[in-house]
Design brief:
Layout lengths: L1 H16 L4 H12 L4 H7 L9 H37 L16 H15 L3 E2 L5 E3 H4 L24 E3 L5 H9 L4 E10 L10 E11 L4 H15 L6 E8 L2 E10 L16 E10 L1 H7 L7 E8 H9 L12 H4 L3
Parallel strand pairs: 1-4
Antiparallel strand pairs: 2-3, 4-5, 5-9, 6-7, 7-8, 8-9
Helix pairs in contact: 1-4, 2-4, 5-10
This protein binds zinc ion.
């Protein structure tokens, strides 16, 4: 037993001398000192020794074990410090790290998120609908029958007779009202498409549609909601004006202007010297639209509005060409 203990000890120490990697050191530790290791196995056999030898052997075994553990720890720290010094010889740890640029949301996405969060704060739910839409939802159900002159305003991309790329987000009014009884309070953000391209128009742009239906909803409610929105989006003291307008699906209809954010109302190139900027269209939902979805227009009333997201982004950031948003010039986009 004495011999065996001593033999294992010298074997283990011999092994330690050749170790240069942490992985190998761990393997050796398991081989000798692990729960099923050689040394541990031997210590278990101590019970078989004669009673007079047992105390002496126990003491010897413990000494050897402690000694071995100490030597393992020393080898471990030798390996660690050797590792560090080899790094500092070949690499300069004081060099600055590589620069990884942060990505950003597109300015249009940022404005869209901001619009949505303002209306969510007013209790509106967010709904999304398909970009490829049926003629029925885009026109018919919104009181724009075939051959109605209002279709001319839309420059529609048709896919076939009954299918098209939606020209506005208003179809979501119909889709939502078909599914749900009043009260309804919703906004529908998304892409819309029109065959038009110049300094203020792109073939694809973004709109946010909003509508509210309940008992006794009046034009005053519409003005209140839009005022809060403009104040939060632009400025607490922003001026607001409603001009009579026409949309087939609202009656009465209005276009909404804000006081020019560039010149403060004095008149400039952007507001064409009027001091006002148009930002959205709105109105009270036409009873004909309610008829299409089976709402009782004697009982319920509601308002709807639609705003162009790019338009708001242009006014807010003072951008004079809408096409800049879609040229993907990173120098332009990274400013927002
Ligand atoms: Zn102006």
């Amino acid at each position: 037993m004495d011999e065996e203990l001593k033999r294992l000890k010298s074997e283990a120490i011999e092994g330690l001398r050749n170790i240069i990697q942490e992985k190998d050191l761990e393997e050796l530790r398991v081989k000798y000192l692990g729960r099923k290791g050689l040394f541990t196995g031997l210590m278990r056999n101590l019970g078989k020794a004669s009673p007079e030898d047992r105390p002496r052997l126990g003491k010897l075994a413990n000494e050897i074990k402690q000694d071995l553990e100490k030597q393992f720890t020393e080898t471990q720290s030798k390996i660690s410090s050797a590792g560090l010094s080899s790094v500092s010889e070949s690499e300069d740890l004081s060099l600055p790290g590589r620069y990884i640029p942060f990505g950003k949301l597109h300015p249009v996405t940022q404005i869209m998120n901001e619009v949505c969060s303002i209306f969510e704060g007013l209790g509106f739910a967010v709904a999304e609908g398909p970009d490829v839409e049926l003629d029925f939802y885009n026109f018919e159900a919104l009181n724009i029958p075939k051959h109605h002159p209002a279709r001319d305003m839309h420059d529609t991309f048709y896919i076939d007779e009954s299918l098209l790329l939606r020209t506005h987000t208003s179809p979501m009014q119909i889709r939502a009202m078909e599914k749900q009884e009043p009260p309804l309070r919703m906004i529908a953000p998304g892409k819309v498409y029109r065959c038009d391209s110049d300094i203020t128009h792109t073939p694809m742009f973004h709109q946010v549609e909003g509508f509210l239906v309940d008992k006794k909803v009046s034009f005053a409610d519409l003005k209140g909601v839009l005022s809060v929105f403009c104040q939060k989006m632009f400025d607490e003291k922003i001026a607001l004006r409603f001009r009579p307008s026409f949309f087939p699906f609202t009656e009465p209809s209005a276009e909404v202007d804000i006081g020019c954010v560039i010149c403060g109302g004095d008149g400039c190139r952007v507001c064409k010297q009027t001091g006002w900027l148009e930002i959205l269209g709105a109105g009270m939902i036409d009873p004909e639209v309610f008829k299409m979805v089976g709402y009782d227009s004697e009982l319920y009333s509601g308002f709807a509005f639609g705003l162009g997201v790019e338009r708001i982004a242009m006014l807010k950031y003072g951008i004079d060409d809408i096409r800049l948003f879609y040229e993907n010039d990173i120098r332009f986009l990274s400013q927002f």
